[in-house]
Write a structure and sequence with these properties.
The protein is mainly β. It is built from one helix and eleven strands; from the N terminus they run H-E-E-E-E-E-E-E-E-E-E-E. A hairpin with a 5-residue loop joins strand 7 and strand 8. The N terminus is likely disordered.
Length: 190
């Protein structure tokens, strides 16, 4: 009885807990396009990690600042084309926001990332907020609730769209520089 039970459990755990490095060896970043006032051409660099568990966007021109009462918003719209083997699909599991913040009292910002696949109505977002007074370099990871994750198609790939936006508001001086955003990926067999 138990000899049939344990192999079955092993198959279920392998499927639920993730895929092996061999499964993701065929995953390739085919291309990235981007646009928006926060990421002019030549100011952004994109990488897919070697283990295929994250996509990182690094910015050199994503800055918002003001010295008095204000409301400002900037964004960078990114389209990521990832090729992956049939039988796999992925979702964004977490987002790490790396920002340089220089806020006096009264300044605040909300850094928000919206994810969706081209042609799909499903969306998910993660965000991190900063409130002045606050000064320094910050790296904050926000995790998607399991039910909030959206999965790529199984058997075909659609581009992943990432809308990276920052809203700066308040009554005191404030400046935020977006250094990078890393989107954690989780893979599963479908």
């Amino acid at each position: 009885m138990f000899s049939n039970f344990f192999p079955g459990i092993l198959v279920v755990l392998t499927t639920v807990l993730g895929v092996t490095a061999q499964n993701v060896s065929g995953v390739v970043l085919r291309g990235v396009s981007h646009g928006g006032q926060a990421c002019p051409q030549g100011s952004t660099d994109f990488t897919l990690s070697v283990d295929k568990k994250s996509i990182t966007a690094k910015y050199t021109a994503f800055t918002l600042s003001s010295t008095n009462s204000y409301f400002q918003r900037k964004n960078c719209q990114i389209n990521v084309d990832i090729a992956y083997p049939a039988g796999l699909q992925y979702a964004v599991s977490d987002t790490t926001f790396s920002d340089s913040v220089n806020f006096e009292k009264g300044a605040s910002a909300q850094h928000r990332i919206l994810y969706y696949f081209s042609g799909s109505p499903d969306q998910t977002s993660l965000q991190h907020s900063y409130n002045g007074p606050l000064h320094g370099e910050f790296s904050n990871t926000e995790v998607s609730a399991t039910g909030d994750q959206i999965w790529s198609p199984c058997g075909g790939s659609l581009p992943l769209n990432i809308n990276n936006a920052v809203v700066l508001r308040g009554s005191g001086p404030g400046k935020i520089d977006v250094r990078s955003v890393s989107s954690g990926l989780v893979w599963r067999i479908c």
